[in-house]
Xanthine phosphoribosyltransferase (Pseudomonas azerbaijanoccidentalis), 380 residues
Amino acid sequence: MEALHQKIREQGIVLSDQVLKVDAFLNHQIDPALMKLIGDEFASLFKDSGITKIVTIEASGIAPAIMTGLNLGVPVIFARKQQSLTLTENLLSATVYSFTKKTESTVAISPRHLTSSDRVLIIDDFLANGKASQALISIIKQAGATVAGLGIVIEKSFQGGRAELDSQGYRVESLARVQSLKDGVVTFID
Amino acid sequence: MEALHQKIREQGIVLSDQVLKVDAFLNHQIDPALMKLIGDEFASLFKDSGITKIVTIEASGIAPAIMTGLNLGVPVIFARKQQSLTLTENLLSATVYSFTKKTESTVAISPRHLTSSDRVLIIDDFLANGKASQALISIIKQAGATVAGLGIVIEKSFQGGRAELDSQGYRVESLARVQSLKDGVVTFID
């Protein structure tokens, strides 16, 4: 997606061979117009997949997910990392290790919002080692629902997440595929 | 805002005299079409206020904030509750106590994204005791920026947050003002 590639080139900061900082338009400050383009693109890619729900993780996945949900006309659920006093029932949960934060956390979704008839599109801001995506897949399966595909804003293709999802047979659509961050330069696939 | 009042009546759950659960459309599962209506309403209310940035707190503030930013054509910043390894610089921060979660936390914004020329609209999902809003006001002032107003999706008017903001002279626009949650019934002001 050219508008996203351009934004990454202009405002992305390569912190190391492994870490791309995009807090100017995606992870901290958010560009709403770009999120709209991203949501429209995901909606176009998955419009024939019979999506009934979108699932993401707080917090950076919410903006692209909500724009996709607006276009497709379906609800968005964001998995929570911390338990709230207002989420009192038994929750569907899975463990996820964050390489960026060096912490393990539990993500959870209320079973009231996912049923076995749901066809779910997972949306997330980043795909790196795929731990967050695998946790969401686990939760969706616990609900008996179907994972119809994954829409990723930025994929770090040199890490293992994409290859694992491919080998599991999931459809993954990434709008920017980063081949390398070597020498402080962002190189895209294609 | 009638569409919001109706949604609260239909899908809100009164957990106690103090706690209204709206995880079916705002805090966990999100209704994107309703968020669009909410964003358009905030944009209409503040269209003449010279807004240059929107500030919210992760996670439930992001959806209404991004829709408001889309309409007004300005960036959205979400204050982070946990430090990320990619937010490495000195941060503007403030402490906030959550009555719902019974925890004190630090919220932070990178000074790279807020300047003294910014006129900031604060958007949040709930206004109760006002601790989150006061923390955001503190951060915005630390940046030397101006708080142009606050847009709140649901205000619990019987708690102290609104009165304190009024007494400080801030413009507060709440789309649903809850007068009482007594006896399991949501009563709105007006």
